[in-house]
Amino acid sequence: MITVTEATATATALATPPAGALRRLADQGVSVWLDDLSRRRIESGNLAELIRTKNVVGVTTNPSIFQAAIGSGEGYEEQLADLAVRGVTVDEAVRMMTTADVRAAADVLREVYDATGGRDGRVSIEVDPRLAHDTRATVAEAGQLAWLVDRPNVMIKIPATKAGLPAITEVVGAGISVNVTLIFSLERYREVMDAYLAGLEKARAAGLDLSGIHSVASFFVSRVDSEIDKRLTLLGTEEARDLRGRAALANARLAYEAYENVFAGDRFTALAGARANPQRPLWASTGVKDPAFRDTLYVEELVAPGTVNTMPEATLDAAADHGEVRGDTVTGGYARARADLAAVERLGISYDEVVEQLEQEGVAKFEAAWQDLLAAVTKSLDSKGVDGE
């Protein structure tokens, strides 16, 4: 099995020397993925350029990203016209356009995928967010998306809702690589890892090759600070002000501690003997929203081996321009992380309440973006003289 160091070194060798910080991230075992995709980015050669020059070794998408890309119409006119002539439904049109983009991006990243033994070179596509609370529909949609994209380096994104947990097990058990998204709480993250291990056990029982199954767990970062810092600011005390910008990093660091414990445990050790891969933590929502903080905060302070940091392009550019990578900034900080979250609780801010709210808002935001995308595509199909409903 390819080690973290071997995989990241191989991925780095595929690129010309990128900006120093991005190269140093790879040297520390952090895979840099781009949190964005559009047809124009693929066709213009921009994605290939980011692989060559900025050490990008993967891509993540979500409903908001596709809403922005397809909603603009740029690059999709010809396919929309063809879909309109066929008289397809708006749901089918959206599925055809999104899977086409993911397929093309997967082809661009195929060399990275091959060189890293499947560890990187990945492109993620999310199940319809309207299915977030329906286990059976999520499993069926995941299988359909994997079949439509038809590339070994696709990852199917499944939200970490209660209904999503058994879906993760079923989809992994069928041999499909999964990106688990919208993880905010440590308790839910442990449930996600358990669901992944159960899926590997199911796949092993079915006689599948575990070495071909990969997974990442997308642990959201900046949204935690946005919500907790808002509450800290309302308190207005000096202690509250001093805690701003610390909760999200504490939460993520404790998530990494949980990852270390689970994947060093007996349950995974038995699976590793069958060539199973650990489920890597992926830091998502890494764009800094508070201008008072460094725009590279969630890159520099979450450096740890065996992780993925998926960045919007602005964060990627900032990291390349002035990022400071000082080595591992996670594994030595568990005691401080626990103390920071305890201090937030002592001020009357409920961690459980915040993470539950963020999960609900995350699902709702993706569903709203999907509805906006459906509306934009419906309008485009209608403008071509065909009813898109």
Automatic annotation (TrEMBL):
Question: What UniProt keywords apply to this chain's record, in alphabetical order?
Answer: Cytoplasm, Pentose shunt, Schiff base, Transferase
> Could you tell me the EC number(s) of this protein?
2.2.1.2
Tagged with keyword Cytoplasm: yes
Question: What is catalyzed by this enzyme?
Answer: D-sedoheptulose 7-phosphate + D-glyceraldehyde 3-phosphate = D-erythrose 4-phosphate + beta-D-fructose 6-phosphate
Q: Tell me which Gene3D superfamilies the record gives.
A: Aldolase class I
Subcellular compartments: Cytoplasm
**Primary residence:** cytoplasm
- State the source organism's domain of life: Bacteria
Q: Where is the active site?
A: 157
* GO function term, MF aspect, one: transaldolase activity
Could you tell me which pathway this protein works in? Carbohydrate degradation; pentose phosphate pathway; D-glyceraldehyde 3-phosphate and beta-D-fructose 6-phosphate from D-ribose 5-phosphate and D-xylulose 5-phosphate (non-oxidative stage): step 2/3
What is the recorded function of this protein according to its Swiss-Prot or TrEMBL entry?
Transaldolase is important for the balance of metabolites in the pentose-phosphate pathway.
User: Which HAMAP family did the record assign?
Assistant: Transaldolase_2 (MF_00493)
Task: Indicate the family of this protein.
Answer: Belongs to the transaldolase family. Type 2 subfamily.
> What is the name listed in the Swiss-Prot or TrEMBL entry for this protein?
Transaldolase
Organism from which the protein derives: Streptomyces olivaceus
